[in-house]
Specification:
This protein has about 160 residues and is an alpha+beta fold. It has one domain. It contains four helices and four strands. A four-stranded antiparallel beta sheet has the order 1-2-4-3, with helices on one face.
């Protein structure tokens, strides 16, 4: 029993000695949290749009969509530092679009992570909102673009 207690103490002291606050990747943790929040936010907007349609038997307006969705008691997520828009493409219908202006390497990494988390929604990453095909550029080439966007078509 004494040997077990000494062994546990040695492990405890060793663990404390090798962990410091400076060893925590705070930026990495923040990026993961922002990615998850944005992925969840995009999914929640699809639910809010469906709620509005069921309650009103019409689509939300393109100009005042945030107010329309809030009327269903849905919360419009904060996508900072990105912008969110709602629009329509002639063949595919309505969509939500998340935009990173003047993208940097963190934006590119987060957009790829968001797209992976919402893969079931068939996200499209492209230079313009409403594109129906993924960008032909490599992710490293997005850094030279004015914007990168994730478009999620709603099916309406």
């Amino acid at each position: 029993m004494l040997i077990k207690a000494v062994f546990v103490m040695i492990l405890f002291v060793t663990a404390i000695g090798f962990t410091t606050p400076s060893g925590v990747n705070v930026i990495g943790i923040k990026n993961i949290m922002v990615t998850r929040s944005n992925a969840t936010g995009l999914s929640s907007l699809l639910v809010a749009e469906q709620s509005f349609i069921q309650m009103n038997n019409t689509l939300p307006s393109l100009t005042d969509w945030k107010s329309d969705l809030r009327s269903t008691r849905s919360v419009i997520p904060n996508f900072a530092p990105y912008d969110i828009s709602y629009n329509e493409e002639s063949l595919m219908g309505r969509y939500f679009c998340l935009t990173a202006t003047s993208p940097n390497a963190d934006h590119v990494e987060m957009f790829l992570d968001i797209a992976e988390r919402i893969d079931h929604l068939e996200p499209i990453i492209a230079e313009e909102c409403g594109e129906t095909d993924n960008s032909t550029l490599n992710p490293s080439e997005w850094l030279s673009e004015d914007d990168i966007n994730i478009t999620i078509f709603t099916g309406n």
